[in-house]
Amino acid sequence: MEGSSMGVWVAHGEGKFHFPDEDVYKKCTSDNLMSLKYCNDDAVETEQYPFCPNGSRDGIAAMCSDDGRFLAMMPHPERCFLQWQYPYINEELKGKGDDNNAGPWLRMFQNARTFCE
C-alpha cells in the first residue's frame, strides 16, 4: 500500500498525535513509524483542516510499533473497504476492485491476516 493516496472516512476530529517529548518524535520519525499521513487533493502531506481533521503534527494519521504488530490510527478504513462505501474515489482507483467490488483499503486487512498466518 506504500505510496497510495486514497479517500477514507474520518468520523471526528479526535486522534491527534501529540509528542510532549521531542526525542520520542525524532525516534518515531527516524524509525519510520508514521504509517499513514493526511494529504490534500494534490496528494501532498498536510496539517491543514479539513484535509487533516485534527491538526496532527506532520499530518500523522497512523503509527505502528517498530515490529509492525500494532497500528494506532484515527481514520476508519473498516468503513470503506468496498468501493461503494468510499467517501471519494479518484479516477485512478475507479473500477479497480475485484468481482466483489472490493476497494484498496481491503488490502490493509488482508496484509494483517497474511502477517498473522
From TrEMBL:
SMART domains: GATase_5. It comes from the Eukaryota. Gene3D superfamilies: 3.40.50.880. This is Phosphoribosylformylglycinamidine synthase. It comes from Tetraparma gracilis.
